[in-house]
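Protein Record: Sequence and Backbone Structure Tokens
======================================================
Tokens: labelled as protein backbone structure tokens, with as many entries as the chain has residues.
Task: work out the structure tokens from the sequence, keeping to the layout shown below.
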Amino acid sequence: MYSRKIVGYDLSDSLELKGCVRALSKAVYQAENTCAERSRNIKGLIHHSDRGIQYCSNVYTQILKRKKINISMTEENHCYENALAERVNGILKDEFYLDQTFMNTAHAKRAAKNAIKLYS
């Protein structure tokens, strides 16, 4: 939230855990490399999410704990409690047209990657 930069994302055709883990891995990799350049470690980072089952899973939370990343979750699974994330999603959909119907997954992934690159 501090930088409003998207550091990890994954476009998947399901809500399965593996997509969230891929996004988290990208974010951790980005954080570790950024911190290494600045002679800092990632300890003390905060991972904020809603209460989706993927983010509460043992696999997901163990990755965060191993990396010493603090876990923060909304009180309820309610979009108003995650206003910044919902706003970013809205911007990507409205201003970068990610709410359109894509011809295939590859096209959607390219569009998402370009939109996130431009947004960040």
Notes: Helices lie at 17-37, 53-56, 58-66, 83-95, 105-119. Residues 78-120 form one domain.
